[in-house]
Amino acid sequence: MQENISKFDTFKLATQYWQGDSTTTTLIILLFFLALGIFFIAGFLLQKQLRIKSLRQYFETFAKEKGLSQEEIEILWRYSQKMERDPMLVLEFKAPFEKVIDLYMHTDPHPKEELVRHMRKKLGFETQSPYIPLITTKDIEIFQNARMIFSNNKAINIALYDKDERYMYWVVVDGNLPSSTYPGEIVKIVFIRQDDGIYSFEQPIADILYEDGKTILKIPHTFDLNRIQRREYPRIKIDLPAYLFFKTPEGLVTLEGKLVDLGAGGARICIYKELKLLRKLKYGDQVLLSFSLDGKNQIELEAKVLERDIKTNSVCLRTLFDHVEENIKDQILEFVQKEQLKMAQVQRKQ
Q1: CA distance 87 to 104
Q2: How far apart are CA 92 and CA 101, in angstroms?
Q3: What pLDDT was estimated at residue 310?
Q4: Among the listed residues 342, 277, 276, 268, the one whose alpha carbon sits nearest the alpha carbon of residue 303
Q5: Amino acid 279: pLDDT
Q6: What is the pLDDT of residues 43-97, one digit of tens each?
Q7: Angle between helices 22-65 and 70-82 (to 10 degrees)
Q8: Where are the alpha helices (DSSP H) in the chain?
Q9: pLDDT below 70 — which residues of the chain?
Q10: What is the SS3 assignment for 94?
């Protein structure tokens, strides 16, 4: 019978024998478990604080290596904590950095735009690679052309005139802003980013400014960008030796040139000799491209001519690959991704 008595019952019996009062006994048991709970909670909180302190030290060391001042470090740390973001990611990647900075700009009573620009430059987030999708409208380049579409489907041409940490300033290009346009009106802006995609977003007009004969529309920044990739596969600008083969009534023609653009779906090759032969090619003609991605293994792909760009000293052909094997496609995609990463890293160091 006694073997079946639980440890809890044993403890209770012992305290009853010692105290002789069941109410006091129950209270002692509750206090015991409460103290035990407080002990474990205190230990957990202490460990958490030690981890945060260790992370803060590591964060500051890493941030100082990137040239950030103590004030800049404090801002990034404080607002990354408010957003519950990993502060190390804020130093390494543009997307979390911009999210944290956006919170700072909209909630700090006295945000410093110049300080933000310095941080962006020090961390290498100032220049956006033309091959990497935009994260926020802050990344749109000055002089970017676009179309602004109103609720009545009327559209006008605009261009990005200026921007700060809160707003974009779009100048009306053709000077025919509808007279019914008013601050607060929601408009849609659509633009094409070369080598990337088609972007669009909807935002309200914050203000309409008139400056030196120009009409400027003040629009708040947003992260809510819609993107349509222009090509099925991403492409990269390169400079690779290549050979072009095609048939003529006189026989097979072999020309040496350079690949200046490459993706898994097609390529652009430029030839600088025997230009008269290239003028015989037209849309839909079949050619063969031969090139190497690693300097060793040669890749040969059949392609269709889509476009010719004839200049005085060169002829460039935009081509579409036919029947690319999966292993070759994977090689090209991997090569393109690596080159994109290299370009992004170079731009961050500049």
Answers
A1: 14
A2: 14
A3: 78
A4: 268
A5: 74
A6: 666 666 656 667 788 889 989 998 999 999 999 999 999 988 888 889 888 889 9
A7: 140
A8: 7-19, 22-65, 70-82, 87-92, 94-107, 113-122, 275-278, 326-349
A9: 1-22, 24-25, 39, 42-53, 127-131, 195, 229-233, 343-350
A10: helix
Determine the pLDDT at residue 349. 47
Q: Are 100 and 83 in contact (CB under 8 A)?
A: yes
Q: Identify which of 348, 288, 344 has the alpha carbon closest to the alpha carbon of residue 133.
A: 344
pLDDT at 26: 73
- Among 201, 114, 119, 197, smallest CA distance to 160 is for 201
Distance of alpha carbon 156 from alpha carbon 173, whole angstroms? 8
With a CB cutoff of 8 Å and minimum separation 6, the contacts of 305 are 281, 282, 283, 284, 285, 286, 287, 317, 318, 319
Give the 3-state secondary structure of residue 228.
strand
Cβ atoms 158, 189 nearer than 8 A: yes
Q: Nearest to residue 108, comparing CAs of 76, 85, 136, 70? A: 76
Could you tell me the two tokens for 232? 């099925």
Contacts 24+ apart (CB under 8 A), 124-130: 124/347, 124/348, 124/349, 124/350, 125/94, 125/97, 125/98, 125/348, 127/347, 127/348, 127/350, 128/94, 128/347, 129/340, 129/343, 129/344, 129/347, 130/193, 130/194, 130/195, 130/196
Angle ∠(124,129,135) on CA atoms, nearest 5: 80
pLDDT at position 348 is 47
- Alpha-carbon distance of 284 to 107, in angstroms, equals 57
Query: Which secondary-structure segment (H or E) carries 127?
Result: none
Distance, first Cα to last Cα, the chain: 81
* Tokens describing residue 313: 């000293």
> What is the C-alpha separation between 162 and 290, in angstroms, rounded?
45
Look at the alpha carbons of 238, 241, 244, 250 in this order and tell me if their dihedral is positive or negative.
positive
* Residue 282 in tokens: 């037209």
Could you tell me if residue 242 is left (phi over 0), alpha (psi between -120 and 50 degrees) or otherwise beta?
beta
| Residue 142 CB coordination number (10 Å) | 11
Rounded CA-CA distance 258/5 in Å is: 87
